[in-house]
Amino acid sequence: MSKKYLFGLAIACLAIGACGEKENGVKNEEKTKVVTVSLGSKPKSLDPAMYNEIPSLSIVEQIYNTLFQIDENGKIAPELAESYEYITPTELVIKLKKGVKFHNGDELKASDVIFSLNRMVEKPATKVMLDVIESVEPLNDYEVKIKLKEPSAPLLYTLSYPLTAILNEKYTEEKNGNIATDAMGTGAFKYKSWGDGEKIQLVANEEYFGDKAKIDELIFRAIPENTSRLAALETGEVDIATIAPIDVQTVEGSSDLYAVSFPTTSTEYLTLNTAREPFNNKDYRKALNYAIDKQSIVDAVYLGKASVANTIVNPTVFGSDQKVGKIDYNPEVAKELLEKSGVKNKTIKIMSNDNPVRLQAAQIIQANLKEVGINAEIETVEWGTYLQMTAQGDFDVFIGGWVAGTSDSDIVLFPLLHSSYKGGAGNRANFENPEYDRLVELGRKSTESSERIEAYSKAQEILAEENPLVPLYYKNENMGLNKRIKNFVPVANTIHNYAAIEVQ
């Protein structure tokens, strides 16, 4: 099966999870091949279109398929689609593969695609990506026509992201749309049990239309603490886990484990709530950017397995301009800007989810701000609360991350900062700038690469001046694996596909 090299959003960290072989009671003493992957947070839902967050999408990736995928060369390739053709710049015809079966035995039809796409346009997490769609209509049982409001350069990449996975219409309606803990797709693995979200079990789909899974069972376990995840990896309780940078050396020193470290499409940053004082003050926001010693975080927390961010758009992503936005650590300039801002004696709160690495970064930021006269308190909340409070605007500043899931600037610059997506839809900074909106809209609808690059560069220049977000660093993903795991191929958006892995 061709691996999905899908790159997106959102907003969170994947920690991954035990591989072993268990007797399955078969007389010839064949053994069930079981692999356990550790998630750093409990997934919120297995409904693909509900939440743009890595723990959920990591499991969605195994159960469902999308119309397209991104191949090893970063090019669009069909997945559920057989072929596609733009008959006009705003009309896309997609021909579906025949004989693809959902896990309940139903064959994939055009009606399922139409149902899924119409549903996505209504869901907050996917609306931001697909509101360019005007209508979807059937041409026959295996062909659909998508009409767009305007040309959309990122559309095919969007339709390769797990958020846009295709559902079975009949099954979803029978469940009244409540498929958060009862997933059913066309993927290489079938859903078995939810386990309160702490232990989610999947089994191989023997009727899969592509290359079938090489293992029999895939288990996802939520283990939030880095030390607990490492201990589970060392004892063989889990087989694959994301690990803290400080633990890479420990894993490399084990005779039973190995480590991989690879660049991602993500950026870690501070979101400033521009709807609140003093963050509605541009000089104050810029002062925060100058006050933070980002290189110290890279060195002390990530042990060099990250790089300082100049812009919110990761350098691996189309449209990133690393020549704009560079603000070097300079506490004296920060003090001058604070004086210019007129803000006096302001105590602020920095919110973080309960991720130890993020908390370490927050502590360095806290110390940096104290040096320029800002008293920063750190507020730690669990993952679900973090998502809810930041969506509601109930914060001063929060430290977070965004994965460019489609490896295109559109998936970063539009949902995170376009004024039409303020709040839970993505723009949690509540940023509003008409010229910025115009530029990212141009980047979305233009089909000329040079025009898109220029628009995105100018948009990033505005962000460097306005500072609604403070880019911090581009981090590597560090993973530990049991040496019995073979053929694991990591992907930059950290939403890995486990169908091809083998157990030896």
TrEMBL record:
UniProt entry keywords in alphabetical sequence: Signal, Transport
Pfam families, per the entry: SBP_bac_5
Annotated Solute-binding protein family domain residues: 75-422
Record GO biological process: peptide transport
Entry GO MF terms: peptide transmembrane transporter activity
PROSITE patterns: PROKAR_LIPOPROTEIN (PS51257)
InterPro entries documented for this protein: Peptide/Ni-bd, SBP_5, SBP_5_dom
Any GO CC annotation of this UniProt entry: periplasmic space
Family designation: Belongs to the bacterial solute-binding protein 5 family.
PANTHER family referenced in this protein's UniProt entry, alphabetically: OLIGOPEPTIDE-BINDING PROTEIN APPA, PERIPLASMIC BINDING COMPONENT OF ABC TRANSPORTER
Protein name: Solute-binding protein family 5 domain-containing protein
Source species: Cetobacterium somerae ATCC BAA-474
